[in-house]
Structure formats: structure tokens, C-alpha cells
Amino acid sequence: MSKFSRLAVIAGAFASLAGFGSTAHADAAAGKATFTSICSECHEVADFEGEDAAALQGTIKNIVAGTQKHKKALKLTDAQVADVAAYMASGK
Ligand code: HEC
User: Whose CA is nearest to atom 36 of ligand 1?
Assistant: First the structure.
């Protein structure tokens, strides 16, 4: 399956599961699934341990919006960004 269609499948699955927006409802387990399928190709989650989840969320949002330079364009919903940021900040 191409990377793009895999992303679309993930986005659809999460859109039905998760609310949009707030860090308060971030789901680190869902974030782990996203990180493992998309980000782990280049990143080690442990590298982000102890970072502020809200700050990470802001950075990732900027990457998704294209306002922050990143090696790979990211296509994530707001809920996925919150979840993946929560997982990354936990470091595991
Ligand atoms: C094709 C490789 C690649 C993929 C896939 C990738 N990244 Fe990155 N990312 C990089 C590189 C290279 C950098 C810049 C160098 C660095 O900080 O390691 C970076 C930087 C970042 C930064 C900024 C780090 C900082 O300290 O400012 C964040 C946050 C980030 N990536 C998040 C993600 C997330 C979330 C995903 C998955 C949804 C992802 N990346 C997928 C290669 C990738």
C-alpha cells in the first residue's frame, strides 16, 4: 500500500474515534500507532522524551501547515497531532 493511502486510512479511522483539537483528550496509544506507522521511519520516540507536549503539538501543526520546514510533508488531523505529541512527549 502506498504511504499516501495508508495515511488516508489512518486519518479516517481516527476521525471516527477521536474528538478534534484539544490536548486534554490526547490519546497517547493512538499517537503511538501514528508514530510507528509514519514517523518511526526517521525518528526515535525516545529523542522526544520530556519535551512539552503542547510545544511539540505546535511544532507538528506548523509542519502539517507547511510553515515549518521538515524532511517530509505530514498530513495529519488535529486529533492525530495531539495524540502523536502526547506519545512523543512520554518518550515511549
Ligand atoms: C523522511 C524522514 C522523516 C519522517 C518520516 C518524519 N520526520 Fe520529523 N524530522 C525529520 C528530520 C530530518 C528532521 C530535522 C532534524 C531533526 O531534528 O532530527 C525532523 C524534525 C522533526 C521535528 C522537529 C524536531 C525539533 O527538535 O524541532 C518534529 C517535531 C518532527 N520531525 C516530527 C515528526 C512527526 C510527528 C513525524 C510523523 C508524523 C515525522 N516527524 C516524520 C525527518 C522525518
Answer: 39
Please tell me the distance between residue 4's alpha carbon and the centre of ligand 1 in angstroms. Answer: 17
| CATH code (residue 51) | 1.10.760
Q: Cα(53)–Cα(12) distance, rounded to whole angstroms?
A: 23
Tell me the backbone φ, ψ of residue 13, rounded to 5 degrees: -60, -40
Domain count, the chain: 1
**SS3 label, residue 61:** helix
Q: Which domain holds residue 79?
A: 3-90
**How far, in Å, is the centroid of ligand 1 from the Cα of 79?**
18
Residues 62-86 pLDDT 10s? 999 999 999 999 999 999 999 999 9
Q: Within 6 Å (CB) of ligand 1, which residues are found?
A: 38-39, 41-43, 56, 59-60, 70-72, 74, 76, 84
